[in-house]
Amino acid sequence: MTFADLPLSEAVLKAVQDVGYESPSPIQAQSIPHLLEGRDLLGLAQTGTGKTAAFALPLLSGIDLKQRDPQVLVLTPTRELAIQVAEAFQRYARHMKGFHVLPVYGGQDMRGQLRSLQRGAHVIVGTPGRVMDHLRRESLKLDGLKTVVLDEADEMLRMGFVDDIEWIMEQTPADRQVALFSATMPYQIRKIADNHLKNPAMVEIKAKTATVDTITQKVCMVSGFHKLDALTRILEVEPFDAMIIFVRTKTATVELAEKLEARGFAAAALNGDMSQALREKVVDRLKKGSLDILIATDVAARGLDVERMSHVVNYDIPYDTEAYVHRIGRTGRAGRQGTAILFATHRERRMLRAIESATRQRIDTMRLPSMSDVRDIRIRQFKEEVGKVLEMGEELDVFRELVAELEQENALSYEDMAAALCFMAQKERPFPDAKEPEQPRREGRERGERGDRPDRGERRGRDGERRGDRGRERNNDGMVRYRVELGRDQGINPGDLVGAIANEGKISGQSIGHIRLFDSCSSVYLPEGMDKAVIEALKGAKIRNRPMELKLWTGEEPQGERRGRRDGAGRRDGGRPQGGRRDGGRGEGSRGGDRRPRRDNSGNR
């Protein structure tokens, strides 16, 4: 089955093609038809099976873009998952002009959420406590709601949100569709299903576990900007026979193959757009040793069995654990040892934990090779090549005569001539400068330091920076600093900047670098080499109905400005009343004066 076999809307199918999905996962194939028919759904599936797309794709296909009131409400246990699901909706709706999705969760500026709700959103994704707050304020109206999705219901039960879910469900229209997804089915979740789902379709995806004893698994924590650099260093230092590198899209196979070839590696692409004859030719080259690196998509690599395949690299983390197991199964066959390297970012740690659970192995963090390591390897290889030439007894007499002539004619020493010849030999592949500063790892902590704690509850400072990042320079390599003519005096916060840039410039939040707030202006790092159309769009963007006036940062930073300056309202920069709670004293998950406010995923009360 392919996604084209499912009756999804044309705009959604086009987005699926853009993302690079080639065939639906089991839960997607079974869930999408039921949701498209309008049936309630009870889905049992583990994290990492692709369930976000299982409900997002069919629900987007039924969205009425002319109706501005919320049509879909997705409840999630944590703010991280809320953001992730909202981003997935935005990604799949890229060809739906005028579509809006809004994540709402505790710890986020309530005023910004209220303004966004007033503007209208087709899909709301939120944590139960904050959704309750908006319902009580009547800032969120569910009169036009078509579907409610309860995502990771058992996790919401574990966090104590069952009463909240029951209350929220009572506020929804009686004829709405309900989709409930859970990894397990305890009594309380079954009770919710019995109370609120009408004749639901049942979809159960049994978790497939795998133990790959012959494969050494490693994870390299990287950021998107430095992924290619990290891969290049690994290829330089890691001894391998043949390697397959997995990416998500067909386009990425060609682009990465070209970049690696430009760096001197024997690489080629393998994807579904290639003819069968060309694919067979590429695989044959790999088997015979004239090709060392294959860049492929999941579908293109199915059934691939090459004896010399020693390494598998997940350049793009897969969307589900089953795909990961299939990918790394290209190596370590017939009792041979293999190595699987996974590139992951801080925001992909949920999938990383799901992969560890599926493979029943902890994936250790590998140290990214330094430039000093790369230099040492290249020098050692060069010495070995020189030694082989001497050992093979090549005809060197002609060159010895040439060296003697150079010595007499130019009064050159043997050391200077040898150095010049070495330079000529390595001119196309110079030895890196060992003193080059290391690229700091920006995406989360080292794997050995992170432990297994959940990634919710991350606390932030007044400028939106993680508190652990204070006093430490962020890595802005490959980025350009821009100035925005709005700052604290205009009530701007980092979330406003990220939202405006992401929406107007169609730039992912991961691609937006370090943000600094000043009294009268702000600065933000954006990717180098942005398209002129994107820059022009950002120049015309507005934040809180004020023009951003984006331009290149020049000159020094404003002097004499304070981070904690109070304004006339007695508030600090973040808009939080001194000595009180956020949101006017109403804590996340508050249910009235006679009940204690609940702690949600943000760590705020």
TrEMBL record:
Annotated Helicase ATP-binding domain residues: 32-203
GO molecular function, one term: ATP hydrolysis activity
Highest taxon in the source lineage: Bacteria
Localization, UniProt: Cytoplasm
Comp. bias (Basic and acidic residues): 559-605
Example of a GO cellular component annotation carried by this entry: cytosol
Domain Helicase C-terminal: 227-374
DEAD-box RNA helicase Q domain location: 1-29
Keyword annotations of the record: ATP-binding, Cytoplasm, Helicase, Hydrolase, Nucleotide-binding, RNA-binding, Stress response
Family annotation (InterPro entries): CsdA_RRM, DbpA/CsdA_RNA-bd_dom, DEAD/DEAH_box_helicase_dom, DEAD/DEAH_RhlB, DEAD_box_RNA_helicases, DeaD_dimer, DEAD_helicase_DeaD, Helicase_ATP-bd
Reaction(s) this enzyme catalyzes, per UniProt: ATP + H2O = ADP + phosphate + H(+)
Gene Ontology biological process terms from the UniProt entry: cellular response to cold; ribosomal large subunit assembly; RNA catabolic process
Protein name per its UniProtKB record: ATP-dependent RNA helicase DeaD
Organism: Endozoicomonas elysicola
